[in-house]
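Wait, can you check?
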Amino acid sequence: MTTTIYVPRDSAALSVGADDVAALLAQHAKAQQLEVRIVRNGSHGMLWLEPLVEVATAQGRIAYGPVTPADLPALFAANFLQGGAHPLRLGKTKEIPYFAQQTRLTFARCGITDPLCTDDYVAHGGLAGLQKALLQKPAEIVAVLVQSGLRGRGGAGFPAGIKWRTVLGAPADQKYIACNADEGDSGTFSDRMLIEGDPYMLLEGMTIAGLAVGATEGYIYLRSEYPDARTVLSEAITRARAKGWLGNNVLGSGKQFEVFLRIGAGSYICGEETAMLESLEGKRGMVRPKPPLPAIAGLFGKPTVINNVMTLAAVPCILAQGGDHYASFGVGRSKGTLPFQLAGNIKHGGLVEVPLGITLRALLYDFGGGTITGRPIRAVQVGGPLGAYLPASKFDLPLDYEAFAAAGFMVGHGGIVVFDDSVDMQAMARYAMEFCAIESCGKCTPCRIGSTRGVEVIDKIARGHRREQNVQLLRDLCDTLANASLCAMGGLTPMPVLSALDYFPEDFTKN
């Protein structure tokens, strides 16, 4: 009898030796004349347990982790292929509390299937959304998306259905779908995990978007720092074409949609939608002034839907199960689920997909388990390097777009970076300004010059030079950046700086 064993191929697992574990596992099984089938699946997102090895048993998938090559002899001796007892045994994967308490809509297949197996994808509900979309008119598809309340998962939270409706109504001989996979925010990895663990879901979402607005071509702009994602996605596109899921006759419908993969060149600013368009067109990645909006004049001057990976990957579920079903999750105008990513000084780092509206405290302690150092959490940055630093007094604020915006914060891409009480918040404010100075495209003066001056002013504060006056100067500089920058790069840089000043002022007065 052949036993199926799952060993992740996700980058996080590979970085801690998953390939070695898989190779040696096969060798041990062969030496003991045991029949095994090793499936390289995606990650479940419990990154502190990687490499997480799962064994398919009559009772279900039993997890062991984190497994190193040195653990394998003892695991075989403990009869782990039948779910035997061992210190690394975690029980049924689906019953691990961190995983069991989640609401997985976008990541329902991630970690469950072989990411590149088309049969696996279909067997676990893949293509159901696309098949429904092929039976609907474009306006009907857009209506379902509007009904779902899905908002862009890349940062601003703009309603995706409104953006699609605009592109649908824009007259043009050619339209495009542009997927922003330039996931450059600190502490974020959900795009990478989805691409490496369930790439067909992204392709299906893009195809549905194409049907909805009348686009026949889609481009994925993937950051160059994701070589494993590039490998998986390239192969997935090839296999999807071979199966007729992409091309001139999508699922035999006579409708056309093609996807092309483009690789970025390491520029953070190309995560901004118009800079990404410039790069896709072969130009230097610099921000375009708006208007015109990309929905009217985007890629190559044509109407373009620009969404990030998480937005497009939510679409198949919405079409398959209905807009009302998706809208039943979340709070207020913040509908659906969001894959939050726990990083930094956190005991149980990883991905947590839950409905919007959960508190930061629940994520940090119920899922994250507090800091890995055991020290108190002092600050948490939410929303990437341009997001605010939140103090403990704000941990009970619900994570929804309106509540966070009202408090002067942003949910962004759902990245959460944790700091314990040893952090120097003056240094973190300086880091935010320096990050902007380094990553600015240089097109507008407030961002290009203001961020450089900001670093200099913070250095003066750190030296104790005219501290009170320089703190006021820093605030004035932030006001200029926020209100005069061309894009969010300069416009949002004040958020982490001012939050550090407002909530951790003592760090700016120490000698």
Q: What stands out?
A: The chain is about 40% helix and 15% strand. The radius of gyration is 24 Å. The chain has four domains: 3-100, 118-327, 330-420, 425-508. The chain has a mean pLDDT of 95.
